From TrEMBL:
Keywords: Cytoplasm, Methyltransferase, RNA-binding, S-adenosyl-L-methionine, Transferase. One of its GO terms (molecular function) is RNA binding. This is RNA methyltransferase. Belongs to the class I-like SAM-binding methyltransferase superfamily. RsmB/NOP family.
Length: 450
């Protein structure tokens, strides 16, 4: 790897003492490869490997395969994820042992790996809000959420300050704050080049603003997870200490961790070092709001853009998605777009839509053209797709041809009409089968170019 910045090297020498040579050596070794499998789509791991100790759905791989050429990756069967950051799963499990998590917020969510962890770890009855302020990163977040296949998630694009009307509404707030990226030096040479002491201070100030906006959103007795992929005091313990001083209704929450995991306890949380764990640099602290009295959920407000779909639209959706009238809401847009969302999420969706500039609820189902539904790509990846939808199982070669949008006719093709193209029973996208050809509806912007 590139030479370490002098100021950073001094910082780490002061922090690690005699351990610094081992740390420096670790940064020159190949980074571990790990995945988090989607427990709603797979009952076993897509790849065999050593378990990640703190995440039951995490696995280390012995080598890095070409994920782009694995149809299961495109089907959302797993997420390629750095192992240290999977510690969020352990914290989510600990929080659930202390209290129910009905509503969770991932405030800085893109590209979506930690939201996927929450959706994996929390019960399906939980509603998870995944927010990202940057437009280009928001598109990536939505794509990864679609691959994960859940409808109990609401995507939002907003600055953290816009969440102020939702004070006290979330049992869990995850704030994986933008940081100086010191923990990514082994994986990203660009992070080394971009590091400076001045950037550390800029990141710390930004994190302080985000935390000041995030902490009031926690419900009484609820939790906030604060994490970064960096090492320095200003962005980690120092930032948490300042937040606790400014918000005395919060306290540090103790989390028991097995010693053989190799985590380093700090004043406020835990630090992951690459020479002590099989992972990259990561920091996490858990804060709890002291008040134990019941919070007041957001009042229901009218939706300004989304509206309950008319009966005809619900009937059209019922042919494609497994739903019951009591459990599921179908929302419609003025452009005839339809979305599937758990009924229990409607109140939160209403409050978010009133407070935030953009909200995308649940799973896009498709668009009505006359009385016919043109299915959305997201529906092909959904775990709520009806078993009655025709399917066409593809071989690996056929699946890659489909993902590349290359001409082919699947050997399993029989009936005409809309079909879900599948690989190992996992949905990839939509195709319309005709007597002599296949019309491929896989999105052009997502097609494989290898």
């Amino acid at each position: 790897m590139h030479n370490l910045p002098e100021a950073f090297a001094r910082q780490m020498q002061d922090m690690l003492g005699a351990d610094f040579p081992a740390f420096e050596s670790a940064l020159s070794s190949p980074p571990p490869v790990s995945i988090n499998y989607n427990r709603a789509k797979l009952s076993a791991h897509a790849h065999s490997g050593e378990p990640v100790p703190w995440n039951p759905t995490g696995r280390y791989l012995s080598r890095r395969p070409s994920f782009t050429l694995d149809p299961l990756f495109h089907a959302g069967a797993y997420y390629v994820q750095e192992a240290s950051s999977m510690f969020i799963a352990y914290l989510a499990a600990h929080i659930q042992s202390e209290r129910p998590v009905d509503f969770a917020l991932d405030l800085c969510a893109a590209p979506g790996g930690k939201t996927a962890i929450l959706l994996n770890q929390l019960p399906e009855s939980s509603i998870v809000v995944a927010n990202e302020v940057i437009k280009t990163r928001y598109a990536k977040l939505r794509h990864n959420l679609a691959k994960w296949g859940r409808s109990n998630v609401i995507a939002a694009q907003a600055d953290s300050k816009h969440f102020a009307p939702l004070k006290g509404q979330f049992d869990l707030v995850l704030t994986d704050a933008p940081c100086s990226g010191e923990g990514l030096f082994r994986k990203s040479p660009d992070a080394v080049q971009e590091w400076s002491e001045g950037n550390v201070q800029l990141c710390s100030a930004r994190q302080g603003r985000i935390l000041d906006n995030a902490l009031p959103l926690v419900a009484p007795g609820g939790y906030l997870i604060y994490s970064t992929c960096t090492y320095n005091h200003y962005e980690n313990d120092g930032r948490v200490r300042q937040a606790l001083s400014a918000h005395d209704e919060f306290e540090l929450a103790a989390v028991p961790v097995p010693q053989d995991w190799g985590l380093t306890a700090t004043e406020c949380g835990y630090q992951f070092f690459p020479h002590r764990v099989k992972g990259e640099g990561f920091y996490v602290a858990l804060l709890r709001r002291k008040e134990a009295n019941a919070g007041v959920r957001a009042p229901k407000v009218a939706l300004s853009y989304f509206a309950p779909a008319p009966k005809q639209s619900r009937q059209a959706v019922a042919h494609w998605a497994s739903l019951t009238d009591d459990d599921w809401a179908v929302l419609a847009t003025p452009k005839q777009g339809l979305y599937l969302l758990p009924q229990r999420a409607m109140q939160m969706c209403s409050a978010l839509a009133k407070a935030l500039p953009r909200v995308d609820p649940g799973t896009p189902v498709g668009t009505l053209k006359g009385q016919q539904l043109v299915p959305a790509h997201e529906l092909a990846l959904s775990i709520h797709l009806s078993e009655d939808v025709p399917r066409c199982e593809a071989s690996e070669e056929e699946a890659l041809s489909f993902l590349r949008k290359a001409p082919f006719m699947p050997a399993a093709a029989k009936a005409k009409g809309w079909h879900l193209m599948t690989y190992q029973n996992q949905g990839l996208g939509w195709a319309k089968l005709l007597p002599n050809r296949l019309n491929n509806y896989f999105p052009n912007e997502l097609r494989v170019r290898m």
